[in-house]
Design brief:
By secondary structure, the chain is of the alpha+beta class. It is built from 4 helices and 11 strands. Strands 3, 4, 7, 9 and 11 form a 5-stranded mixed sheet that branches. A hairpin with a 5-residue loop joins strand 5 and strand 6.
């Protein structure tokens, strides 16, 4: 084998090795992409919980959720080592909750019900709002508009009233909520079905007693299931073994190339 043929063979082997490494790295980047992390809805006690994944450390939980390690230690009474294990359910945040009336069965955020008077003696009115809870705190704040598509049902305990409706969209400053008017005095159960691609941030079922001349507005909150602009976190635990495999491939290719050149020299 002449010198020119050797050089050509070496160049072809190097090109094949480079192509293989680039392909593996692209595959690694595709596998490593995770779906955005969405903060869970708080439970009835106001706790935001997180389930530790197998082999996960506090530093990885901090990177994934944005909650500092010091806060994880404080909320869960952990030692400075912040030892957690796969399957553990830890607290990563707390929100304030308001106790329910005796007849209620779920947590209602402050300000969810706004009673007012209306000139309708002997009858009542119940209005329902579904708002875009962008910060996920369960309370309608400035800049959070009404959402369309919430399917509302209202039923009284006697079974004589059964109504349905759909929430309206727009700015609270210019759009009125969807209202059920001319309701007999009594106790009602109001429930809502959240539109697809949204998660509820408040209760979706609430009992309410109305008196003659009252008008009550109930706020239900929903948040996009995948928040726009959410950060995609790299899975570094999975990347390490992939990079190790790539390094092993390069090493083996180098050894093979060296053996090939050695045998070629001996053949001459």
């Amino acid at each position: 084998m002449n010198k020119r043929t050797k050089l050509l063979t070496s160049a072809i082997l190097f090109l094949l090795i480079t192509t293989l490494v680039v392909t593996v790295l692209k595959t690694s980047d595709t596998v490593n992409a995770q779906t955005p992390y969405n903060t869970p809805t708080a439970d009835a006690a106001g706790r935001i919980l997180y389930v530790v994944q197998p082999g996960e450390f506090c530093s990885q939980i901090q990177e994934r959720t944005g909650v500092p390690i010091s806060e994880i230690i404080r909320l869960n009474g952990l030692t400075e080592a912040c030892e957690v294990f796969g399957g553990d359910e830890i607290v990563i945040g707390m929100v304030e909750v308001t106790p329910l009336p005796p007849t209620a069965t779920a947590t209602v955020p402050p300000g969810q019900i706004t009673p007012t008077l209306t000139p309708m003696p002997g009858l009542a009115e119940i209005c329902v709002v579904l708002f875009h809870d962008m910060d996920g705190n369960g309370m309608r704040t400035e800049g959070e508009d009404f959402l369309y598509g919430g399917e509302v049902s209202i039923n009284d305990r006697l079974g004589t009233v059964s109504l349905t409706g759909t929430t309206v969209a727009g700015s609270p400053d210019i759009v009125d909520p969807y209202c059920f008017t001319d309701l007999p005095v009594g106790t009602y159960n109001i429930s809502i079905a959240i539109p697809d691609d949204f998660n509820p941030t408040t209760v979706t079922n609430y009992p309410l007693e109305v008196r003659a001349g009252e008008s009550a507005t109930i706020d239900f909150g929903a948040q996009l299931a995948s928040q726009p602009g959410a950060e995609v976190v790299s899975d570094t635990v999975r990347r390490v073994p992939v990079l190790g495999i790539v390094g092993l491939i390069i090493l083996l290719a180098g050894v093979g190339l060296g053996v090939y050149m050695w045998r070629s020299n001996r053949a001459e």
